[in-house]
Amino acid sequence: MIMKSETKNCKNCQKSFTIEEEDFNFYEKIKVPPPTWCPECRQQRRYAWRNERTLYRRNCDLCKKSTVTIYSPNKPYKVYCNECWWGDGWDTTSYSRDFDFSRPFFEQFHELQLKVPRMALLNKNSVNSEYTNHSGDNKNVYLSFACFGNENIFYSTWIQKSRECIDCSFVNEKGERLYEVIDSRTSYECQYGIFLKDCSSCYYCYDCHGCNECFMSSNLRNKSYVFKNKQYTREEYLKKVKEFNLSSFKSIEKLNKEFKKMIERETIHRYVVSERNINSVGSLLYDCKNVKESFEVNKGEDCKYIYGSIETKNCMDLYHVGWNTELCYECQGCTRVSNCQFCHLCYDDMSVMYSDTCQNSQNLFGCVSVKKSEYMIFNKKYSKENYQKLKEKIIEHMRKTGEYGEFFPPEIAPVYYNETQGNLYVPLSKEEILAKGWHWEDNVQGTKGKETIKSSDIPDKIEDVPDSYLKEIFACTTCSKNYNITENELLFYRKEKVPFPRKCPNCRYKRRFDLRPPRMLWHDRCKCNVSSHGHSGRCPTEYETTYSPDRVEKVYCENCYNKEVY
Fold first, then answer.
1. Which of 396, 336, 437, 379 lies closest to 48 in space, CA to CA?
2. Are 413 and 49 in contact (CB under 8 A)?
3. 524-to-179, 541, 543 alpha-carbon distances in Å
4. What is the rounded distance in angstroms from the CA atom of residue 260 to the CA atom of residue 282?
5. Could you give the residue ranges of the DSSP H alpha helices within 427-504?
6. pLDDT attached to residue 24
7. 8 A C-beta contact, residue 184 and residue 193
8. How many Cα atoms within 13 Å fall on the side-chain side of residue 166?
9. Is residue 306 included in any domain, yes or no?
10. Whole-angstrom distance between the N-terminal and C-terminal Cα of the chain?
11. What are the backbone angles phi and psi of residue 217, rounded to the nearest 5°?
């Protein structure tokens, strides 16, 4: 039976949302019922399961050694360091149990979660990169997250195949010697840049491609020696830049304010960032085909409601999932998975459903921390025939309880809401979280009041910072939490002439987070009034944009933007 579009009220927020005909076709293909929560609430539910960057130290429950983990010491779970988790010192089937058809699925699944050892954090095939999560194939990476194939990366997020970068976010490929660079690729020796591509030695630049030696400029293509969007000779440009002492903290503070003002008042903004796409709707989409209502997607095809992915095909409702992923639905933090639904932190799997932290496996249902196995339900091994029969019987039971078709509820998440990305994308107060029946972590790691040097006493210029600062403790000027610096970090600051940071890594991340476009779309109209662009008065083109109508930026449709910039 072909279903037509249908409007429903969200079971969580009560707002109406529409399920399109093609959505019903997808649900039928993977044999799941249509969702009862709206797309935004479904994404918030997945956010509530992703502790990406809140780290703790606790002892491994097997070898007893101190290990870095995403689970606070007071969490009621068994946590193994990665070496023990992957080792042969324990058997996941020893925690197996039978399914009780007199009780809800999620209730029993949570009990299994409390018993089976959890991986301390997701960090694979890396060297000297203990303080990383959702990452792999790195060398010398520190306090960085969702990073793959990098070397010498510090305090950064979503960095791919890059080296020598500090305080960067979403550098998709081949970034080198970057500081405070956001949403960029193949750029070298740049600082405080946003939407850079194939750029080198650019400072305080926004939306620049193929540029070299540019400063406080935006919307440039294949330019050199541009200072505040004016062309100069090389000698004139270098003289202009020399007027600013870029190793001075006071100078950088003034430049950051000017940069923000330039972005808001002077820069032309595309209504969305979309390159080389076919029939796709969303922002930060690259090389996509038929991708709708999605954000930060590379090489996606026939997908919808995707948030942060690479190489996904025929998928819906994914969050940080990618690399040859197909026919997946309602998954979070999964890599190289196929035909998987309702999964959390699963890598290299096929035909896995309602499972948590399962690796290199296939044909699992309701499993926790299974590795290299198949045909298991609640960590119990079955024959192929018995597995299929029991799986269908449990699914029918879940349909009756209203659980089948829903992602794991935040109530049973092994991490708490204020530790997760949900606290950034959909911030809620402690009272609001507890009222929902979700959880709040009161003992987030960190100290205050133990600083040995006041921020006001830190030298203005990096040249004047002594080696002894490697042994000192500092206090963030925003949140007052203590932080320190590493030797490689200090070497980078000196080499790149970067002032000593006055904020902790988390507050520096929050600054970059606030500079990025939100993962939302608003209906609006192009703000261009330039008659030479082919219209009299304001351009009539309407679009779906990441800029809300009350924003002050100059947001243009694709046609007006291209005529202005190219």
1. 437
2. yes
3. 34, 9, 6
4. 24
5. 430-435, 487-496
6. 95
7. yes
8. 18
9. yes
10. 49
11. -140, 165
Q: Give the number of other Cβ atoms within 10 Å of residue 280's Cβ.
A: 22
Question: Is there a single domain that holds both residue 291 and residue 398?
Answer: yes
Q: Are 356 and 369 in contact (CB under 8 A)?
A: yes
Question: Do 493 and 528 belong together in one domain?
Answer: no
The answer to the question of residue 549 being in a domain is yes
For the CA atoms of 514, 520, 526, 530, the dihedral, rounded to the nearest 10 degrees, stands at 20
From the list 183, 177, 220, the residue with the least C-alpha distance to 201 is 177
The answer to whether residues 280 and 391 belong to one domain is yes
| Ramachandran class of 488: left when φ > 0, alpha when ψ lies in -120 to 50, beta otherwise | alpha
Chain centroid to Cα 256, Å, comes to: 24
Residues 439 and 412: their CA atoms lie apart, in Å, by 9
212, 200 in Cβ contact below 8 A? yes
In whole angstroms, give the CA distance from residue 233 to residue 225: 6
Q: CB 73: neighbour CB atoms within 10 A?
A: 12
Length reported for the chain:
566
Output the pLDDT for position 411. 97
Rounded to 10°, the helix 384-401/105-115 angle is: 120
Rounded distance between C-alpha atoms, residue 247 and residue 336, angstroms: 43
Residues 6+ apart with CB under 8 A from 419: 51, 54, 70, 72, 441, 444
Distance of CA 85 to the CA centre of its chain: 25
Give dist(CA 19, CA 38) in Å, integer: 9
Same domain (yes/no): 481, 544 = no
Last residue of a domain, one of 410, 443, 469: 410
The total domain count for the chain is 4
pLDDT, one tens digit per residue, over 171-201 is 988 999 999 999 999 999 999 999 999 999 9
**Residue-wise pLDDT tens digits, 84-103:** 999 999 999 999 999 999 99
What contacts 488, CB < 8 A, 6 or more positions away?
A: 140, 142, 152, 154
Residue 566 pLDDT: 87
Strands 6-9 and 16-19 turn out to be: antiparallel
Question: Which helix (DSSP H) or strand (DSSP E) does residue 6 occupy?
Answer: strand 6-9
Angle at 91 between CA 88 and CA 95, to 5 degrees: 160
Q: Which two structure tokens, joined as six digits, stand for 214?
A: 């540019």
Q: Which domain holds residue 15?
A: 1-35
Q: Please say whether the beta carbons of 295 and 307 come within 8 A.
A: yes
Query: Which regions of the chain are under pLDDT 50?
Result: none
Q: Tell me if residue 418 falls in helix, strand or coil.
A: helix
Are the beta carbons of 269 and 554 closer than 8 angstroms? yes
**Within this chain, do residues 363 and 476 fall inside the same structural domain, yes or no?**
no
CA quadruple 52, 112, 108, 345: dihedral sign: positive
